[in-house]
Amino acid sequence: MLAPPLPEDELLRLQVLHALCILDSGPEERFDRLTRMARRVFSVPIALVSLLDLNRQWFKSCQGLGVNETGRDVSFCGHAILGDEIFVIPDATGDNRFADNPLVTGDPHIRFYAGCPLRVSRGAKVGTLCIIDQQPRGFGSEDAQALRDLAAMVEDELSAYQAAMTDPLTRIWNRRGFLTMARDSLALCEAQGQGGTLVCLDLDGFKQINDRHGHAAGDAVLERIAFGMSKCFRSTDVFARIGGDEFVAWMPGSDAVEARGATARLTDWLQGQELALGLPYRSGFSAGYVDHPAGSGADIQALLSEADAAMYAMKSARRSAG
């Protein structure tokens, strides 16, 4: 048996999955309807919406199987999320990766498997819509299109979960999404003996931009800040808009030097964009930084409060000097 390797974006993938706040939630008709449809369309005994957590695959919807999770190490879906296309095993007994898998040699005696990866934020593949048969079978191009169509419906339902975590203007995490994702990232850092840095940003002169140039200009500034953060911070950093003109970033495994480097890059990027666009204003921000040493035990809410205080102290010092 070949256990599935971890995808290259595993940390981001887990952050996105946990931010959905869907793991271990109860059954929902909107998902069950789609797995019933999949079982009927393909005439298979088992259809699942499977979500891949760190060490398990958990089934948000499960038709034809008597358990709600199995180990990730024996999962077919763990292999399916490694690629972009539908993952098909016509006969597991003839495939060296799965022939001695306990899900093949024992209950539910999988022979045929087809799983379509489910993508949500930033293309992260959080799981699959999969169909399973206890007999070998083929899987043609029309079958593949039908499974993709059903998977797209599942993705729409997952996106509804995600909408509650996302700022609609900037399309990055809101406060709720940030607290959920950063809490999980902090816990992972603690488990690995790593620290991190939390950065709080508050825009300078934002009210004046709104007053002089209109709210459309203000909205454009907020969108540029969010996009700039995606360019200037790392893909593993968790960043969000947590208030009207307040942004925050949790940087796992970093220190204040690296955090200041990221905000300096953001400042340069913003100035370059505004010069290139010929805008009549320049947007800037004040920043507060809090280092979190490994093992110090602080929670993300406490770090956020501390970084917020540091940011306002910086803003006040600028005004006094000014």
Short description:
The protein contains 10 helices and 10 strands.
Silhouette: elongated
In whole angstroms, how far apart are the ends? 67 Å
Q: Give, in order, the helices and strands.
A: HHEEEHEHEEHHEHHEEHEH
Number of DSSP E strands: 10
Radius of gyration: 23 Å
- The low-confidence parts are none
What is this structure's SSE topology?
Layout (H helix, E strand, L loop, with lengths): L9 H10 L9 H14 L3 E7 L3 E8 L5 E3 L5 H4 L6 E3 L12 H4 L6 E8 L5 E9 L7 H23 L11 H17 L4 E9 L1 H8 L1 H18 L5 E4 L4 E7 L3 H22 L6 E9 L7 H22 L1
Antiparallel strand pairs: 1-2, 1-6, 2-3, 4-5, 5-6, 7-9, 7-10, 8-9
Helix pairs in contact: 1-6, 2-5, 7-8, 8-9
Describe the structure.
InterPro entries: GAF, GAF-like_dom_sf, GGDEF_dom, Nucleotide_cyclase, Rev_trsase/Diguanyl_cyclase. This is GGDEF domain-containing protein. It comes from Sandarakinorhabdus cyanobacteriorum. With 322 residues, this protein is α+β, with helices and mostly antiparallel strands. The chain folds into 2 domains: 154 residues, Beta-Lactamase (2-Layer Sandwich); 147 residues, Reverse transcriptase/Diguanylate cyclase domain (Alpha-Beta Plaits, 2-Layer Sandwich), CATH 3.30.70. Helix content is 44%, strand content 21%. It contains 10 helices and 10 strands. Strands 3-2-1-6-5-4 form a 6-stranded antiparallel sheet. Strands 8-9-7-10 form a 4-stranded antiparallel sheet, with helices on both faces. A hairpin with a 3-residue loop joins β1 and β2. α1 crosses α6 and α2 runs antiparallel to α5. The longest helix is centred in the middle third of the chain and has 23 residues. It is elongated and about 75 Å long. 38% of the residues are buried.
